Protein: DUF5082 domain-containing protein
Amino acid sequence: MDYSDTLQKIHGVLSHKAAELEEQIARLERAKRDVEREQNLGVEEIRQILRPNLDESWTGSRAADFDEARDEAHTAMYRIFTDEYDRYIHKIDLKIFALDSEKGAVQAASWSADRADFLMEKGEEAVDALHSTINGLKGWLK
Structure:
């Protein structure tokens, strides 16, 4: 069995996986910033729903109906731009956390691969440890 080729393939797979995870995390972080920016713009816009204040200058049943509809629209939009957006941002945060955890596992496997490189350099006296380390890494990659 050629440990050198096996380790080279393992390093390649780990490097590719780490780069893939970094890209996914970066895309999610950009998406989160975009959602937060949109949320802030939305909150600013919904403040306009209640303008102008018509309490003193407009009276009667039509004014009351209009004011009630305007308040309902404001409340609905406020819930969307706070509760719904916050839930979406939380989902993005959870996915980033999961990917960061996976990235940590890839880094740990990479350190094991580096250890296997070190053991391979030691030669014959480290063959058993090298074999065990490589088998562990193969199991991780499946």
Residues 34 and 67 are 33 Å apart (CA to CA).
